[in-house]
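Show me any protein, keeping tokens residue-aligned.
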Amino acid sequence: GRHGIDNEKETMRRELFIRLFNHVLQSKWDEMKRI
């Protein structure tokens, strides 16, 4: 019951974090390529 919902929230948070991390990485990578 409850545990499943908490698990879903945890997964969503992790996906958001990974997406944000990838976005930052991509930005830094683009900056490095320009130099």
Summary: The mean pLDDT is 92.
